[in-house]
Amino acid sequence: MKFRFLGDGDCPDWLLAEINTLSRMTSIKIKILGQAVAKYLTEGELDEEKIKKITQDAKLEVNDAKAMVAALELMLTSSARYGVSATDLSSELQQLGLPREHSAAIARLYMDYSPRITAALSSQSLRVSRLSSIQVVSCDNSSPISTVSLKLKKLDGCDENSTINISKDDVQVLLAELRMAKLYIESL
């Protein structure tokens, strides 16, 4: 069976197993656990003490707690990634065997946190290392194919040496395209 909140894919076996574990908790504890996971996804802080207290009250082991956090994280991030409605998420979680109250609590959390989760996921995607400087170390123009050695310094302080083999005619084309790309990026 295909699920929209999983990108029209099948449900992983481990998630099915964790739905059984989530079902043993009350819907109120699921809501509190889900809030902790949503806060982690949006702010980067996981309140481990809160999670430990909730799971100890439900007489669950530490590994079960970790797996439940991973399951809730997958449910919320995957739903946000694929733009699923809260109604569809609730319905699909019920199809997987999660009780109605539990799936409704997760759907409400998703509805409340989805804009912030989407923004957090967007900020983490498409990261490119930023350069602070480029130095030409050597250039060999004696043959039809030029060899240029560059020293790239990233903003994080790491140095990286790169060698580019390019024909003399393509150097001007490359420079023109790099200038166009720079203007495009700056306009964004």
Q: Categorize the overall geometry.
A: elongated
What is the number of helices? Answer: 7
Helical fraction: 55-70%
Rg, Cα atoms, Å:
25 Å
State the low-pLDDT regions, or none.
Answer: none
Nearest-integer average pLDDT: 83
Computed structural class? alpha+beta
**What series of H and E elements makes up the topology?**
HHHHHHEEEH
β-strand percent reads 15-25%
Biggest sheet, open or closed, and with what strands and sense? Answer: 3 strands, antiparallel
Give the N-to-C terminal Cα separation: 41 Å
Total beta strands? 3
Strand adjacency order, main sheet:
1-2-3
Offer a few descriptive terms.
alpha+beta; 3 strands; single chain; 188 residues
Structural features, described:
This protein has helices spanning 13-23, 27-43, 48-57, 62-82, 86-95, 100-124, 168-187; strands at residues 131-140, 145-154, 159-167. The chain is 61% helix and 15% strand. The model has no long low-confidence stretch (mean pLDDT 83). The chain contains seven helices and three strands. A three-stranded antiparallel beta sheet has the order 1-2-3. The chain is α+β, with helices and mostly antiparallel strands.
SSE topology sketch:
Layout: H1 13-23, H2 27-43, H3 48-57, H4 62-82, H5 86-95, H6 100-124, E1 131-140, E2 145-154, E3 159-167, H7 168-187
Summarize the structure.
By secondary structure, the protein is an alpha+beta fold.
